[in-house]
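Complex 327.
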Amino acid sequence: MTFVRIMGMGYYLPKKVVTNDDLSKCVDTSDEWIRTRTGIVQRHIAANNEACSDLALQAAKQALTNANIAPEAIDLLIVATVTSDMQFPSTAAILQAKLGLRTIMAFDINAACSGFVYALDVARHFLTNGVYRYALVIGSDKLSAIVNWKDRNTCVLFGDGAGACVLGQSDTNAHCVVDGFLGADGSNPDWLCIPAGGSLQPATATTVANHLHFVSMNGREVFKVAVRRMMEAVRGVLERQKLTIADIQWIVPHQANLRIIQALADELGFPMDRMICNIDQTGNTSAASIPVALAQAEAAGRFHPGERILLVAFGGGLTWGASLIQY
Ligand code: ACO
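Predicted structure with acetyl coenzyme *A bound:
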Protein backbone atom coordinates (compact mmCIF):
# COMPACT_ATOMS: atom_id res chain seq x y z
CA MET A 1 0.00 0.00 0.00
CA THR A 2 1.21 3.51 -0.83
CA PHE A 3 0.96 6.15 1.89
CA VAL A 4 1.20 9.90 1.30
CA ARG A 5 3.73 11.49 3.57
CA ILE A 6 4.07 15.16 4.47
CA MET A 7 7.81 15.51 3.87
CA GLY A 8 8.23 19.15 4.75
CA MET A 9 6.26 22.32 5.36
CA GLY A 10 6.91 26.03 5.07
CA TYR A 11 5.10 29.32 5.45
CA TYR A 12 5.53 32.97 4.70
CA LEU A 13 3.93 36.03 6.28
CA PRO A 14 4.74 39.44 4.79
CA LYS A 15 6.86 41.77 6.92
CA LYS A 16 4.37 44.60 7.30
CA VAL A 17 2.11 44.21 10.35
CA VAL A 18 -1.12 46.18 10.68
CA THR A 19 -2.65 46.30 14.16
CA ASN A 20 -6.27 46.87 15.11
CA ASP A 21 -5.28 50.32 16.35
CA ASP A 22 -3.77 51.08 12.94
CA LEU A 23 -7.10 50.13 11.32
CA SER A 24 -9.10 52.25 13.72
CA LYS A 25 -7.36 55.27 12.17
CA CYS A 26 -8.80 54.37 8.71
CA VAL A 27 -12.31 53.05 9.48
CA ASP A 28 -14.85 53.46 12.29
CA THR A 29 -13.75 50.52 14.42
CA SER A 30 -11.78 49.78 17.59
CA ASP A 31 -9.26 47.28 18.91
CA GLU A 32 -11.86 46.26 21.51
CA TRP A 33 -14.56 45.49 18.86
CA ILE A 34 -12.21 43.50 16.62
CA ARG A 35 -10.67 41.50 19.50
CA THR A 36 -13.95 40.58 21.17
CA ARG A 37 -15.87 39.79 17.94
CA THR A 38 -13.09 37.97 16.09
CA GLY A 39 -10.01 37.30 18.27
CA ILE A 40 -7.82 39.16 15.75
CA VAL A 41 -5.11 41.48 17.10
CA GLN A 42 -3.00 42.08 13.99
CA ARG A 43 -2.53 40.88 10.41
CA HIS A 44 0.37 40.78 7.92
CA ILE A 45 -0.07 42.79 4.73
CA ALA A 46 1.92 42.16 1.55
CA ALA A 47 3.87 44.90 -0.20
CA ASN A 48 2.39 46.40 -3.38
CA ASN A 49 4.89 44.51 -5.52
CA GLU A 50 4.28 41.16 -3.78
CA ALA A 51 1.72 39.09 -5.69
CA CYS A 52 0.11 35.82 -4.64
CA SER A 53 2.82 33.84 -6.46
CA ASP A 54 5.55 35.73 -4.56
CA LEU A 55 4.04 34.76 -1.21
CA ALA A 56 3.68 31.19 -2.45
CA LEU A 57 7.29 31.18 -3.67
CA GLN A 58 8.69 31.93 -0.21
CA ALA A 59 6.55 29.28 1.49
CA ALA A 60 7.36 26.71 -1.21
CA LYS A 61 11.13 27.26 -0.98
CA GLN A 62 10.99 26.69 2.78
CA ALA A 63 8.89 23.53 2.37
CA LEU A 64 11.31 22.14 -0.24
CA THR A 65 14.28 22.85 2.04
CA ASN A 66 12.56 21.24 5.03
CA ALA A 67 11.61 18.23 2.90
CA ASN A 68 15.15 18.03 1.51
CA ILE A 69 13.68 17.64 -1.98
CA ALA A 70 15.11 19.34 -5.07
CA PRO A 71 12.60 21.41 -7.08
CA GLU A 72 13.28 19.17 -10.13
CA ALA A 73 11.84 16.18 -8.26
CA ILE A 74 8.35 17.71 -7.98
CA ASP A 75 5.80 16.03 -10.29
CA LEU A 76 2.66 18.01 -9.47
CA LEU A 77 2.01 21.59 -8.30
CA ILE A 78 -1.33 22.79 -6.91
CA VAL A 79 -1.96 26.30 -5.61
CA ALA A 80 -5.15 27.01 -3.69
CA THR A 81 -6.07 30.69 -3.95
CA VAL A 82 -8.82 33.24 -4.61
CA THR A 83 -6.33 36.03 -5.26
CA SER A 84 -4.48 34.73 -8.29
CA ASP A 85 -1.82 37.08 -9.70
CA MET A 86 -4.07 37.53 -12.74
CA GLN A 87 -7.53 36.23 -13.76
CA PHE A 88 -5.51 33.79 -15.85
CA PRO A 89 -3.01 32.17 -16.28
CA SER A 90 -3.07 30.26 -13.03
CA THR A 91 -0.79 31.24 -10.16
CA ALA A 92 0.49 27.67 -10.23
CA ALA A 93 1.72 28.12 -13.81
CA ILE A 94 3.49 31.36 -12.87
CA LEU A 95 4.98 29.71 -9.78
CA GLN A 96 6.19 26.71 -11.79
CA ALA A 97 8.56 29.04 -13.66
CA LYS A 98 9.55 31.06 -10.58
CA LEU A 99 10.51 27.89 -8.72
CA GLY A 100 12.32 26.38 -11.71
CA LEU A 101 10.22 23.21 -11.67
CA ARG A 102 10.07 20.86 -14.62
CA THR A 103 7.18 21.44 -17.06
CA ILE A 104 4.90 19.45 -14.79
CA MET A 105 1.14 19.62 -14.33
CA ALA A 106 0.36 22.84 -12.44
CA PHE A 107 -3.07 24.25 -11.65
CA ASP A 108 -5.02 26.40 -9.18
CA ILE A 109 -7.92 25.36 -6.99
CA ASN A 110 -10.57 27.94 -6.18
CA ALA A 111 -12.34 26.81 -3.01
CA ALA A 112 -11.69 29.97 -0.99
CA CYS A 113 -10.71 29.23 2.61
CA SER A 114 -11.20 25.47 2.09
CA GLY A 115 -8.74 25.56 -0.80
CA PHE A 116 -5.77 24.01 0.96
CA VAL A 117 -7.80 21.08 2.29
CA TYR A 118 -9.23 20.55 -1.22
CA ALA A 119 -5.75 20.72 -2.80
CA LEU A 120 -4.29 18.33 -0.24
CA ASP A 121 -6.91 15.73 -1.05
CA VAL A 122 -6.53 16.07 -4.82
CA ALA A 123 -2.76 15.62 -4.48
CA ARG A 124 -3.25 12.67 -2.11
CA HIS A 125 -5.25 10.84 -4.76
CA PHE A 126 -2.64 11.44 -7.48
CA LEU A 127 0.11 10.10 -5.20
CA THR A 128 -1.90 7.16 -3.82
CA ASN A 129 -2.73 6.07 -7.36
CA GLY A 130 0.96 6.00 -8.15
CA VAL A 131 0.63 8.57 -10.93
CA TYR A 132 3.11 10.94 -9.31
CA ARG A 133 5.81 10.59 -6.66
CA TYR A 134 6.17 14.10 -5.22
CA ALA A 135 3.65 16.95 -5.05
CA LEU A 136 3.91 20.53 -3.87
CA VAL A 137 0.66 21.86 -2.39
CA ILE A 138 0.31 25.51 -1.45
CA GLY A 139 -2.36 27.78 0.00
CA SER A 140 -1.57 31.40 -0.84
CA ASP A 141 -3.74 34.48 -0.62
CA LYS A 142 -3.32 38.23 -0.75
CA LEU A 143 -6.72 39.24 0.61
CA SER A 144 -5.48 42.81 1.10
CA ALA A 145 -5.70 43.18 -2.70
CA ILE A 146 -9.43 42.43 -2.81
CA VAL A 147 -10.89 43.96 0.35
CA ASN A 148 -12.40 47.41 0.44
CA TRP A 149 -10.24 49.24 2.98
CA LYS A 150 -13.16 51.58 3.65
CA ASP A 151 -15.57 48.76 4.59
CA ARG A 152 -15.22 47.98 8.30
CA ASN A 153 -17.42 44.89 7.94
CA THR A 154 -14.71 43.10 5.97
CA CYS A 155 -11.36 44.89 6.04
CA VAL A 156 -10.68 44.12 9.71
CA LEU A 157 -10.98 40.36 9.16
CA PHE A 158 -8.35 39.51 6.58
CA GLY A 159 -4.58 39.25 6.13
CA ASP A 160 -2.02 37.92 3.64
CA GLY A 161 0.21 34.84 3.71
CA ALA A 162 1.12 31.48 2.23
CA GLY A 163 1.69 27.96 3.53
CA ALA A 164 3.16 25.03 1.63
CA CYS A 165 3.82 21.33 1.98
CA VAL A 166 5.74 18.76 0.00
CA LEU A 167 3.99 15.41 -0.24
CA GLY A 168 5.73 12.18 -1.22
CA GLN A 169 4.89 8.51 -1.60
CA SER A 170 5.85 6.44 1.44
CA ASP A 171 5.80 2.82 2.62
CA THR A 172 4.86 3.68 6.22
CA ASN A 173 1.98 5.68 7.65
CA ALA A 174 4.08 8.14 9.69
CA HIS A 175 3.49 11.84 8.90
CA CYS A 176 0.79 10.84 6.43
CA VAL A 177 -2.35 12.36 5.02
CA VAL A 178 -4.78 9.54 5.68
CA ASP A 179 -8.13 10.76 4.38
CA GLY A 180 -10.18 13.78 3.36
CA PHE A 181 -13.88 14.67 3.36
CA LEU A 182 -14.98 17.60 1.17
CA GLY A 183 -18.25 19.34 0.38
CA ALA A 184 -19.79 22.33 -1.38
CA ASP A 185 -23.16 24.07 -1.59
CA GLY A 186 -23.47 26.82 -4.18
CA SER A 187 -27.06 27.81 -3.44
CA ASN A 188 -26.03 31.15 -1.88
CA PRO A 189 -22.92 32.24 -3.79
CA ASP A 190 -23.51 35.89 -2.87
CA TRP A 191 -22.92 35.25 0.85
CA LEU A 192 -19.20 35.44 0.18
CA CYS A 193 -18.04 36.66 -3.21
CA ILE A 194 -16.52 39.32 -5.45
CA PRO A 195 -19.63 40.30 -7.42
CA ALA A 196 -18.01 41.75 -10.57
CA GLY A 197 -15.02 41.20 -12.82
CA GLY A 198 -16.08 37.72 -13.93
CA SER A 199 -18.16 36.65 -16.94
CA LEU A 200 -21.43 37.40 -15.10
CA GLN A 201 -20.63 41.09 -14.58
CA PRO A 202 -17.54 42.09 -16.55
CA ALA A 203 -15.63 45.12 -15.33
CA THR A 204 -17.08 48.48 -16.32
CA ALA A 205 -16.67 51.99 -14.93
CA THR A 206 -19.98 51.44 -13.12
CA THR A 207 -18.91 48.19 -11.42
CA VAL A 208 -15.75 49.93 -10.24
CA ALA A 209 -17.68 52.97 -9.00
CA ASN A 210 -20.06 50.65 -7.10
CA HIS A 211 -17.16 48.82 -5.39
CA LEU A 212 -18.20 45.49 -6.92
CA HIS A 213 -14.62 44.25 -7.28
CA PHE A 214 -14.15 43.89 -3.53
CA VAL A 215 -15.07 41.04 -1.18
CA SER A 216 -18.75 41.14 -0.30
CA MET A 217 -19.85 39.09 2.70
CA ASN A 218 -22.97 38.25 4.66
CA GLY A 219 -21.07 37.65 7.90
CA ARG A 220 -24.04 36.52 10.00
CA GLU A 221 -25.20 33.84 7.54
CA VAL A 222 -21.64 32.58 6.98
CA PHE A 223 -21.11 32.41 10.74
CA LYS A 224 -24.25 30.27 11.23
CA VAL A 225 -23.41 27.80 8.49
CA ALA A 226 -19.66 27.58 9.24
CA VAL A 227 -19.90 25.49 12.41
CA ARG A 228 -22.57 23.14 10.98
CA ARG A 229 -20.57 22.42 7.83
CA MET A 230 -17.28 21.96 9.68
CA MET A 231 -19.03 19.51 12.02
CA GLU A 232 -20.28 17.63 8.96
CA ALA A 233 -16.73 17.42 7.56
CA VAL A 234 -15.23 16.25 10.86
CA ARG A 235 -17.94 13.61 11.35
CA GLY A 236 -17.57 12.49 7.73
CA VAL A 237 -13.87 11.79 8.00
CA LEU A 238 -14.10 10.25 11.49
CA GLU A 239 -16.91 7.88 10.49
CA ARG A 240 -15.06 6.73 7.38
CA GLN A 241 -11.95 6.02 9.46
CA LYS A 242 -14.01 4.38 12.26
CA LEU A 243 -12.64 6.89 14.78
CA THR A 244 -14.21 9.17 17.38
CA ILE A 245 -13.17 12.65 18.44
CA ALA A 246 -11.39 11.06 21.43
CA ASP A 247 -8.90 9.58 18.93
CA ILE A 248 -7.85 13.06 17.76
CA GLN A 249 -5.06 14.93 19.56
CA TRP A 250 -5.05 18.22 17.60
CA ILE A 251 -7.37 20.21 15.36
CA VAL A 252 -6.08 22.87 12.99
CA PRO A 253 -9.21 24.85 12.09
CA HIS A 254 -9.56 27.55 9.47
CA GLN A 255 -8.73 30.83 11.22
CA ALA A 256 -11.75 33.00 10.36
CA ASN A 257 -13.07 33.95 13.79
CA LEU A 258 -12.05 32.77 17.27
CA ARG A 259 -15.74 32.55 18.24
CA ILE A 260 -16.35 30.13 15.35
CA ILE A 261 -13.37 28.04 16.51
CA GLN A 262 -14.70 28.05 20.09
CA ALA A 263 -18.19 27.06 18.92
CA LEU A 264 -16.68 24.15 16.95
CA ALA A 265 -14.70 22.98 19.99
CA ASP A 266 -17.86 23.15 22.13
CA GLU A 267 -19.94 21.16 19.61
CA LEU A 268 -17.23 18.51 19.33
CA GLY A 269 -16.49 18.40 23.06
CA PHE A 270 -12.86 19.05 22.14
CA PRO A 271 -10.47 21.00 24.44
CA MET A 272 -9.71 24.52 23.24
CA ASP A 273 -6.02 24.16 24.19
CA ARG A 274 -5.76 21.42 21.54
CA MET A 275 -7.15 23.72 18.83
CA ILE A 276 -4.21 25.31 16.99
CA CYS A 277 -4.96 29.05 16.82
CA ASN A 278 -2.90 31.86 15.33
CA ILE A 279 -5.77 34.11 14.28
CA ASP A 280 -4.67 36.78 16.76
CA GLN A 281 -1.44 37.21 14.77
CA THR A 282 -2.63 36.64 11.19
CA GLY A 283 -6.35 37.34 10.79
CA ASN A 284 -8.08 35.29 8.12
CA THR A 285 -5.57 34.47 5.37
CA SER A 286 -8.06 32.32 3.40
CA ALA A 287 -6.35 29.34 1.70
CA ALA A 288 -3.12 30.08 3.59
CA SER A 289 -4.76 29.93 7.00
CA ILE A 290 -4.53 26.18 7.69
CA PRO A 291 -1.09 25.47 6.18
CA VAL A 292 0.45 28.46 7.97
CA ALA A 293 -1.01 27.37 11.34
CA LEU A 294 0.04 23.77 10.68
CA ALA A 295 3.60 24.68 9.66
CA GLN A 296 4.00 27.02 12.66
CA ALA A 297 2.75 24.37 15.09
CA GLU A 298 5.08 21.78 13.62
CA ALA A 299 8.05 24.15 13.75
CA ALA A 300 7.22 24.82 17.41
CA GLY A 301 7.41 21.07 18.11
CA ARG A 302 3.78 20.77 19.23
CA PHE A 303 3.07 17.48 17.43
CA HIS A 304 4.39 14.07 18.54
CA PRO A 305 4.74 10.77 16.67
CA GLY A 306 1.54 8.77 16.54
CA GLU A 307 -0.76 11.75 17.18
CA ARG A 308 -3.72 12.34 14.90
CA ILE A 309 -4.34 15.85 13.57
CA LEU A 310 -7.54 17.04 11.92
CA LEU A 311 -7.53 19.99 9.54
CA VAL A 312 -10.99 21.52 9.12
CA ALA A 313 -12.09 24.39 6.91
CA PHE A 314 -15.04 26.30 5.46
CA GLY A 315 -15.09 29.14 2.98
CA GLY A 316 -16.68 30.89 0.03
CA GLY A 317 -18.75 28.73 -2.26
CA LEU A 318 -19.74 27.68 0.28
CA THR A 319 -17.13 24.96 0.56
CA TRP A 320 -15.94 22.89 3.50
CA GLY A 321 -13.64 20.00 4.22
CA ALA A 322 -11.57 18.04 6.70
CA SER A 323 -8.27 16.17 6.34
CA LEU A 324 -6.91 13.58 8.72
CA ILE A 325 -3.15 13.47 9.33
CA GLN A 326 -1.37 10.68 11.17
CA TYR A 327 1.76 12.26 12.60
N1 ACO B 1 -16.00 47.72 13.95
C1 ACO B 1 -17.03 48.17 14.67
N2 ACO B 1 -18.31 47.80 14.40
C2 ACO B 1 -18.50 46.93 13.40
C3 ACO B 1 -17.44 46.43 12.61
C4 ACO B 1 -16.15 46.87 12.92
N3 ACO B 1 -15.07 46.45 12.24
N4 ACO B 1 -17.95 45.61 11.69
C5 ACO B 1 -19.27 45.55 11.88
N5 ACO B 1 -19.61 46.38 12.91
C6 ACO B 1 -20.93 46.62 13.47
C7 ACO B 1 -22.03 46.30 12.51
O1 ACO B 1 -22.25 47.39 11.63
C8 ACO B 1 -23.20 46.05 13.44
O2 ACO B 1 -23.74 47.30 13.80
P1 ACO B 1 -25.34 47.48 13.83
O3 ACO B 1 -25.83 46.50 14.85
O4 ACO B 1 -25.48 48.92 14.22
O5 ACO B 1 -25.80 47.16 12.43
C9 ACO B 1 -22.55 45.47 14.68
O6 ACO B 1 -21.16 45.77 14.58
C10 ACO B 1 -22.72 43.97 14.83
O7 ACO B 1 -22.56 43.36 13.58
P2 ACO B 1 -22.71 41.80 13.43
O8 ACO B 1 -22.62 41.46 11.98
O9 ACO B 1 -23.88 41.30 14.19
O10 ACO B 1 -21.41 41.28 14.20
P3 ACO B 1 -21.03 39.82 14.50
O11 ACO B 1 -20.95 39.62 15.95
O12 ACO B 1 -21.83 38.84 13.69
O13 ACO B 1 -19.55 39.76 13.92
C11 ACO B 1 -18.36 39.08 11.97
C12 ACO B 1 -19.33 40.09 12.55
C13 ACO B 1 -17.07 39.17 12.74
C14 ACO B 1 -18.11 39.42 10.51
C15 ACO B 1 -18.95 37.67 12.11
O14 ACO B 1 -20.27 37.66 11.61
C16 ACO B 1 -18.16 36.63 11.39
O15 ACO B 1 -17.03 36.34 11.75
N6 ACO B 1 -18.76 35.98 10.39
C17 ACO B 1 -18.10 34.96 9.64
C18 ACO B 1 -17.15 35.59 8.70
C19 ACO B 1 -16.34 34.54 8.06
O16 ACO B 1 -16.02 33.55 8.64
N7 ACO B 1 -16.01 34.73 6.83
C20 ACO B 1 -15.30 33.67 6.20
C21 ACO B 1 -14.51 34.25 5.19
S1 ACO B 1 -13.74 32.88 4.52
C22 ACO B 1 -13.46 33.06 2.86
O17 ACO B 1 -13.84 32.19 2.15
C23 ACO B 1 -12.74 34.29 2.35
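The chain has two domains: 3-171, 177-326.
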